[in-house]
Amino acid sequence: MAYFYFPDYSLVFIMEKSLQQIETELKKRLAYSYVWGQKQNDIWDGYTNFIYRTDTWEALMPKMAAICKNHNLDKQQLFQYTINRWYNFWSSVAVEKIFCNIEGVRKAENSKDKYIDFNFFGIDFDHKTSIFPKHFNKELKFAQNSERELIDWLYKNQSSEKRFHNRNRLFIIVYNNSGEHWKLKCELTSLKLEIENYAANFKSEQLHSLTFADGQNALSDIIWLVR
């Protein structure tokens, strides 16, 4: 999650809110389909950076209206773009909170570090929660039995925008048997159980070691939430 600009307001919010409160807010987004419309890019991210300072679903609406008016944007496009970014961001922040509450895990000293969210039993990691990628073109069982192949695919196919990096990363992959994988990103109680179970049984030997074309080395692994 470290590729996000992580303002101080977000840090205060996440400390004061319980996971249940965050989960309740995130679930208000589930009534709407998951459609981007506008491809994600730095310009539209700039229009919608108010998500970092917006801690409730209802508070998004007047802010979106103001941006549409000021920049003459399509209301529906901005709505879809905003609610997706807001949902993904606060889910990711909550997951980071889950990790950092585990004994043996320390939050990164620099909250704006692009490459590090936390130190996980002595190893610095970024984390990323992702839906099971349909373009991987393999079934769930294969992916779970061949995690290295999926990890290679995830690094290779990550966004080329400012989020891109080939450093250590823990992936949380959500898979919903209904096909609506994205809906599991707000199941923070379930994510907490899976992350804590992973941490309780963690051994550094299980990490996958990668070397990229530019000579960069990285360690990675996958935590699964399957429903």
What is the domain total for the residues? 2
Instruction: Note poorly predicted spans.
Output: 1-6
CA radius of gyration is 17 Å
Structural class: alpha/beta
The 3D shape can be described as globular
End-to-end Cα distance, whole Å, is: 23 Å
The largest sheet is: 6 strands, mixed
Helix/strand order, N-terminal first: HHHHHEEEHHEHEE
Number of strands: 6
Total DSSP helices: 8
Share of helix among residues?
Answer: 40-55%
Estimate the mean pLDDT confidence. Answer: 91
Percent strand equals 15-25%
Could you state the oligomeric state of the chains shown?
Answer: single chain
Q: How are strands sequenced across the largest beta sheet?
A: 1-2-3-4-6-5
Describe this structure in words.
By secondary structure, the chain is α/β, with parallel strands linked by helices. The chain folds into 2 domains: 8-98, no CATH class; 107-226, no CATH class. Helices cover 41% and strands 16% of the residues. The protein is built from 8 helices and 6 strands, in the order H-H-H-H-H-E-E-E-H-H-E-H-E-E. It has helices spanning 8-16, 19-27, 42-47, 57-71, 75-100, 140-145, 147-156, 188-200, and strands at 105-107, 118-120, 123-131, 169-175, 208-211, 217-226. The chain has a 6-stranded mixed beta sheet with strand order 1-2-3-4-6-5, sandwiched between helices. A hairpin with a 2-residue loop joins strand 2 (118-120) and strand 3. Helix 4 crosses helix 5 (75-100) and helix 5 (75-100) packs parallel to helix 8. The longest helix is centred in the middle third of the chain and has 26 residues, at 75-100. The radius of gyration is 17 Å and the shape is globular. The protein starts with 7 loop residues before the first helix and ends with a strand. The model is unreliable at 1-6 (pLDDT under 50).
